[in-house]
Fold these 2 entries.
Entry 1:
Amino acid sequence: MTTLRFGSKGPEVELLQLGLNRAGLYGPAPDGTFGPATQKAVLEFQRRSGLAADGIAGPRTWQALMPYLTGSRIVTVSGGDSLYRLAGRYGSSIRAIETANPSADPLNLQIGSRLVIPLPFSVVPTNISFTSQVLELCAAGLKARYPFIESGSIGSSVLGHNLLYFKIGAGKSEVFYNAAHHANEWITSPLLMKYLENYAAAYAFGGGVSNKSAAALYGAASLFIVPMVNPDGVDLVTGLISEGSAAYDKALAMNEPPVAFPQGWKANINGVDLNLQYPAGWEEAKRIKFAEGYTKPGPRDYVGSSPLSQPESASVYNFTLNHNFKLTLSYHTQGRVIYWKYDGYEPEGSYDIGRELSRLSGYALELTPPYSANAGYKDWFIQHYNRPGYTIEAGIGAAPLPLSQFDEIYRENEGMLTYAQTAADAV
Ligand SMILES: [Zn+2]
């Protein structure tokens, strides 16, 4: 975390404001500008936390704010503590504490032992820029609350960020959802993370997701999620890679043919379009894109020097080969469209499942337009496995879609995200 002070701007200020908001000290919606209201809240937070109150968010302030960023607090049990008392003290619930601490004996809490106490707000924010940093915080926060979620890294990005994956469910049928191959389509990352959180909460507390029992879903399928295939690109578009940094300047120098910078950037930080990297018609994609003028690293549509030349696409490819996915969804924006076919392949059940996905979301089921009909993840998945794979173009408007669309996009997609986990079983 960067030290932030009056006048600072950017996604880390949004994150700071989110934390202060959750701590009850900052009312407005996060806007990424460290002004008087933010400074006042930081001062108040520092006083309350026993820190030197200087109004500057440095390492100690960030550290103290961490429970509000991850959504839980580690508490050492002392004499007289019970789950009931701990829940009351932190606004948590006994059920939430039990879920987060499966090995603790609620009737015999050991003095000096440490408990994870979930705080009374959800982990995944949907009102701030969703950077790789926010994703890491969500990963830590969700794993702390819901230890049955598995997570780890499938590889590293060009700039060394973990390519995080999550797994939920214990069924034999494996399915795979990925998002944010394209940098300026990052709203799809919180979409999958919010779904993961809602599903996990429903499973933990005996509820349902999209009218389906979470327990039944959990037993039927194993859902794997890579919510941010292109973290470096997302960080560029959201402003976490700040103006004047080496990575920013390098990307800016590659902005040709130019897009609005950085918000129009789709590629990874090397200027390669990650969804034109898969070995399915890659030569054809290259021919088409070169003819359109995309012949070198740039903000969009450059296929790379060879298939899988980039660590992000290679990692997703290898992750796929190491599993046995029956179905995949690849999230993009925008257009409210579902693409289901590749070349002459028509996997068994693929059309019928696509029709149901379309019915659940209200999105149109369509054939991929010729100019983008090759070298995408779903193209390769269909070609390699002859199983149902879909590209979902969520939302409508110009990317990056505003977060004001988030709730609507979530509502449109939750039914699909639930149905697709078991859809291929019926085939
Ligand atoms: Zn896309």
Entry 2:
Amino acid sequence: MRFKLCVLAGSSKGNSIFLKIDDERFLIDAGISNRKIEKALKDINEPNPSHLTGIIITHEHSDHIKGLKTLAKKYQIKSWLTYDTYKKIRPKTGPIDTEFIEVAESFSIGSVNFIPYEIPHDAVDPVAYVITKEKLRIGILLDCGKTSTYLFDGFRNLDVLIIEANHSFDQLLSSTYSDVLKTRILSSEGHLSNWHAAEFIINATPKVVVITHISENNNSAELALSEIESILALNTENYMPFIVIVPSNERGAIISLEEE
Ligand SMILES: [Zn+2]
Ligand SMILES: [Zn+2]
């Protein structure tokens, strides 16, 4: 079993995650321009986008689908998404090659299994994913307003958890954002805070955590790491995952594993 994982971009300006398991390659979301996706793939030594097996979509917000139309059409890559999400994005992408998924119904692409989990967020049909092959379990929880035992249970025993830590609660409250925008971000259909991410990590206890979708205005890589680590230290004994932070304007580190 081999896997290679890299958050190509992770912020409110655009999100895209590359995942290769053995010889199958996927993008989860394509929220940066096709040109940036091509460059990022080249940078991680995966230069040919036509080698992608599929694009897996979480929801229709532009920071998750910006490059989808060009990428899907130029390289003839199929996209997996819910029907309602496709209806929302179709005016922007036009017809693209799709496979429709149902919330809570697992599906396979080649030898890789995907379980889509319903999550609360201000989109039509947003989902998080647990991706598995044999013993390998990877969870991806991006834009999400609040966590739940349903999600804790589904995301237990992960090798890698990629999770949003959008804002520092204190920094958002004291920011210059309008009350309307603050309310939207903090609502149960908004985004996860550093505190929420830490709570999720404590409940799911993954081995490796990748922190992404960090707000440029209401958080920072350093602040997210220090808030999450201190909450973990206060609330857990003998558990501290390996944590990788994706700064909002940079590609994340490559995480890979090769084992017989
Ligand atoms: Zn987003
Ligand atoms: Zn969103």
